[in-house]
Amino acid sequence: MTRALLDRDAVLAAGLGAIRSEFAVPTGFPPEVLAAAEAASRRVPDAHRDRTAIPFVTLDPASSTDLDQAFAIEASGGDLLLHYAIADIGWFVEDGDAIDREAWARGETLYLPDGKAGLYPPVVAEGAASLLPDGPRPAIVLTTRIALDGRGRIDSVERALIRSRAKLAYDAVRPADLPPDFPEIGRRIRAAEAARGATQVDPPDQEVVHAADGRLTLAFRPLLESERDNAALSLATNMAVADLLYAHATGLFRVMEGPDAVAVARLRGEATALGLDWPAATTLAEFERTLDAREPAQATMMLAIRRAGGGARYEAYRADVVPWHAAVAARYAHATAPLRRLADRYVLDAALAVANGRPVSEATTQAFARLPKVMATADARAGRIDRAVVDLAEAAMLEGREGERFTAVVTDIDDRGVRIRLTDLPILARVDAGGRAPGDTLTVRLTVADPAARRITFVV
C-alpha cells in the first residue's frame, strides 16, 4: 500500500507552496493583531477558582504546543468524574477586538504537511492560553460524571486556574503516567458508543513520511491506543455539553446524516475494489466493526466510510429540530478545541452560563446565528486544502509511471462518469467507460501524472 515518492525537483515543497498561494493560507498575523495578542497575553486571571491542586495532565502529539485540553479523573462511588480543563481563550479575547475579528475571518486553524496557519497568534495560542506544564493557566473546567454504562452528564462548569503536571505524548506515554482510572473511563465510553450504535470507525491518518533511505513515502498511520482513549474523553464531554445546552434551549450543534442507500452501495463497490469480504446480509455497522486500521486495505475502507455520510455541519438551536450526529448516534457539540476552532469559544461561554444559572449573553446568542455559515466556509476551505494535498501526493507517487497498466474496480457511476479505485494503491480516479457497473474490474492505463497540476488521468 505504501510506495516511495521520488519527489523530483522537490515538487512536494513547490506544490505545497502553490497550494498555500491558491487557497490564500495566511503566513502570519497583521501587526495590530499581534500587538493586541501581546497585550492580552499579560491579562491576569482574576475570575478563576484555584484548582491547581487537581493533578491535571495533557496528552497530545509530542510536537504540539497549542494544548487545548488537560484532564484528571477521580472516583465518585460507582461513577467516574472526568475533570476536563479546556483552554480559556475567551479570557484573552474580547468580542470585536482585533484578535476576535481576525479569528472570525479565519474560522479555524489550517493544517498542511509543512506547517499550520493558526486561528490565534502564537503568543496566546501556544503561550498564555495553552495548558502547558510550566505554570498556572486559566481554563474552563467541565466536570462530566461518567456512569457504569458509559453515559455522561455535566456536573459542573467553572472558570479555574489549573496547573498541568505533565505534557504527555501519544507515542511515549506509559500507563503509570496516566490517572489510574484512565483505561476504565475509556472502556465505559466505548461501551456506550457500541450500545448506541455509533460508528465504530477510527480511520488512520495518511501521511507523507521519510522512509529509511530518505525518500518520501505515502503511508497510513493508525491511531494509537492512547489517542483513541484520549478522543473518548473529548467525545463524552462534547456530548454532555450538547445535552446541557439543548436542555436549556440554546447552543450550537454539530450534526450529520448517515450514509444513504446510494452511499452504502458505493461503499460496497469500494470494499470489492479493496478485496474485502462484505457479505450481502451484513449491515454497514456490522461490517465496520470487523475493520482493522493496521491493515492498509481496511484502513483505506475506514477512510471511505468516514467520508460517506452527508457531511457534518453546524446548526444553532431551534425549538422544532432535534440536532443529531449520525456517526456519534447522539446530540453532539464542539467545545473542546477552542484554540483551533472559533465555534468552541462560544459553546464554552454558553455552557459556563447555563451551568451556573445565568442567561447566555446576547453576543454569544448572536454568534450562534452567524457561526454555521462562517464555520462551513472555513471547513470547506480546509477540505479543499486537504484534497489538494492528497492530489499532489498521488500525482507525485505516480510520476514517471505514465504508460503503466493498473487493475481497478468500479466503485460508483454518476453523471460525471465512472469512478474507480486502484486495487494496489490508495487512489481514486474517474475514467470514461460506458456500460460498467459497480464492482466491475477494469484494466486502466496511466496517461498523465502531473504533480504541478495535481492531476492524474487514466484510460481504459
Automatic annotation (TrEMBL):
Under the heading SUPFAM superfamilies, the entry gives: Nucleic acid-binding proteins (SSF50249)
Record-linked InterPro entries: NA-bd_OB-fold, RNase_II/R, RNase_II_C_S1, RNR_Ribonuclease
Which residue range or ranges hold the RNB domain? 48-357
Which domain of life does the UniProt lineage start with? Bacteria
Q: What is this protein called?
A: RNB domain-containing ribonuclease
Q: Which organism is it from?
A: Sphingomonas floccifaciens
